[in-house]
Amino acid sequence: MESAATVAAGPVSEQTAPAPATATTTAILAAAGVLLAAALVVGFWVAPTDASTLGFSQKIFYFHAPIAETALLAFGVAFVAALLYLRRGDARYDRLGVAAVRLGLLFSLLVMVTGVIWGRAAWGVWWAWEPRLTTFLIACLLYGGYFVLRGAVEDESRRATYAALFAIIAFVDVPITFFATRFLPEGLHPVVLGPAGSGMDARDLVAFLAGLAGMTLLFIGLLRLELGIEALREELRELKFHLGR
Amino acid sequence: MTGAAQISAVGLGKAFGRREVLHDVSFTVRRGGFLALFGPNGAGKTTTLRLVATLLRPSSGSVTLAGRDPRDEPAAVRRAIGFLSHNPLLYRDLTAQENLRFYADMYGVAEPAARIDELLDRVELRHRRHDVVATLSRGMVQRLAIARALLHRPAVLLLDEPHAGLDAHAAALLDGLLAEIRDEHTFVMATHDVRRGLELADQVLVLDGGRVALQRDGRLEPGDLADVYPEHAGLGARA
Amino acid sequence: MGFRQYRALVRKDLLSELRTRETVVAMFLFVVLAMVVFHYAFTATGGGALSFYTGGMLWVVFVFGALLGLNRSFAHEKDEGVLDGLLLCPVDRVTIFLAKMTGNLIFLGLIQVVAVPVFALFFAPHGMLAHLAALLVLIALADLGIAALGTLLATIAMQTRARDLLLPIVFLPLVIPLVIAAASATGALLSGGAGAPGVLGRLLFLLVYDGVFLVLAYGTYDVAIGE
Fold first, then answer.
1. Which of A15, A43, A121, B150 has its CA 20 to 30 A from that of C99?
2. Where are the domains of chain B?
3. What ipTM was predicted for this assembly?
4. pTM check: above 0.95
5. Nearest Cα to B7, choosing from B60, B54, B67?
6. CATH architecture entry for B1-80+154-222
7. Quick check: B36 and B191 in contact, CB under 8 A?
8. Tens digit of pLDDT for each residue in A43-102?
């Protein structure tokens, strides 16, 4: 029992385990909250209602677009983490990759939800096969497959390796998919989920930028939270493993 | 017999995720030497052989063949290795001849037809050369596997419990063959057959729980391994 | 030496397939069955609108048929535990990839040689004979993409537990861009020939798609196939 305790003490003392919500993380999330609230206020009360047919529903753009961009940022982070993992073999990059993909998937689902709401409000359709929505749908399916892949590999280092390979392939595929959707016949789907042609007023811009900054900070904050939790989980696994031996 | 180190393992370690199967294993096998690898199941014998064979990458440490590291010169190292385990590594739907022809091409064997004939004769399978492997008996398959392993004249032969599951005829053939080629290659053989292993070996390495339990240069008696294989404690000089 | 190995690998796979004939026959039957099922599924609803879909249907059938073949591409190696034999050889891992990809291309091509005439027979799409050459170029480019992507993914999938289930899940989302380009090009080709607007753009897209996945495979195959 004594030897187990000394062995267990080893890894714990070597890593300074961060508590999931450090001061920095909390600050980041708080800032994100403020910015998103600002985006909400400016967007819905201060900025003028859109002159085009979109009308009030256009305001969802202040969230829809930032969420979309943040999802892509998340997948980009996963891509870089995957490259680093393949290069260096450090399991921390794998954890970063998983957390980033998980958040990217979450944000992609939100893109589709906001897209569906927007589509319904603006054009009365629940779903449209327009390029951006389609690309994010495929991204959801693709990165969902990422988790299926992870689940199918038992060996940890193999799992991380294959997941990294897939994260790289998937990220390269996202722009390819987006370009491909442009090949679809136009006539059937007039729905365009983008800023209306009339251009953006300064107040629109403020709301949009606040939304963008807020979403990005939200992503970073959640990522840090996820990594912190994962680090704790990892420690727990280490302890269990050593005690079990 | 002195000679340049043919196989050199330094601080070899292997972990699969969190599970460490090999820890700090070091050994050197002389050119022309024969290392017998002993140890209970799960001790890491197969892992060690697979690391030397370049089928696995070390998590720590290194293994070199004639000074070459497989991470730098994989092709050169692989060309020098012949591997024989209880998995014959043969394609069941292809004939004996086709299997050997395939491997001859993969290893870049010069004059493959002549070499294949030579080996088929040696393992006494010439009459079955055009038969599909699925139709051969277990003993014949293992003999063909021996031919496959020797096809490219490897400097190093790695054997993972090669006698396992062999009938008496095939086992005798293997022993005869090993005796014949004993001087032509450097060997590492993992085996549970202590008597046979010690007969052939001039170096011994015993693994237990992924670590080195015993390491000796020179010929040994089964009794010398009594610490690790207590069932041999009573055995003194060989008959 | 590299070519000798490449040739040996391709020859081995073709020989194995010739002996057992498992894969090609199954793929072919699947493709024809799929066409029949599609026909009934779409016309049973009463519309005569199937001709509207035939350009695309061809690609659905090819992609799912290809999946069958891809699943088998490492089947021999994995089932019999012979993969070690390959990895022991002093062969560039990329050579293994190219050989496997070639095998898959050949199987796919063989299926298509029979399936395309059957397709023409069942659905008699206008313009097929007239624009056959352009159609063949299109099919070749698309096949290359399917084979490159599929071989890379099959390599990963076959080393996991759920291999037959996993390959479609990872392959299908990634092949969607190819399907979009190929199907829309087929439609445009059949109606307007090689000069039809957008055909060239789509062919170029397929070329880029092929290039991207070939490069990805080249860069990652060492890792994908084993340590």
1. B150
2. 1-80+154-222, 88-153
3. 0.87
4. no
5. B67
6. 3-Layer(aba) Sandwich (3.40)
7. yes
8. 777 666 665 666 666 777 778 888 999 999 999 999 999 999 998 888 889 999 999 999
